[in-house]
Amino acid sequence: MTDETDEWTVIVKDSNGTLLSEGDAVVLIKDLKVKGANTTIKRGATYKNIRLTSNAEEVEVRDGKGTFVLKTCFLKKA
Predict the structure, then answer these.
(1) Distance of CA 3 to the CA centre of its chain
(2) CB burial class (10 A; 0-12, 13-18, 19+) of residue 77?
(3) What angle do CA 9, 13, 15 make, to 5 degrees?
(4) What domains sit in the chain, N to C, each tagged with a CATH number?
(5) CA–CA–CA angle 67, 57, 59 (5° rounding)
(6) Is 70 helix (H, G, I), strand (E, B) or coil?
(7) In this predicted model, what pLDDT tens digit does every residue of 22-75 receive, in sequence order?
(8) Has this prediction a pTM greater than 0.85?
């Protein structure tokens, strides 16, 4: 009897088509308004140590104010 694990890997790409992986640094390419808060994240903001989610179009980034989930179409690899 063999022990096989089904491991799914999510392929995540930035706005330019570059592959992203856990721990990469990304740069925001567009100003974004944060839902539920009176805050705007400015273009050019850099986030280090991103975390991938189960969705290929989203990544988690940590900021001093909290954690954001950003769409990859607004990011490029730094």
Answers:
(1) 33
(2) middle
(3) 165
(4) 12-77 (2.30.30.40)
(5) 25
(6) strand
(7) 999 999 999 999 888 888 999 999 999 999 999 999 999 998 878 999 999 999
(8) no
Cβ within 8 Å of residue 43, ≥6 positions away: 28, 29, 30, 31
Residue 21 is given by DSSP the state -
Task: Determine the Cα–Cα distance for residues 60 and 31; give it in Å rounded to an integer.
Answer: 17
Location of structure tokens 């104010």: 65
Tell me the one-letter amino acid at 20. L
Q: Any bridge partners for residue 13, and if so which? A: 19
What are the structure tokens assigned to 33, written together? 């308004």
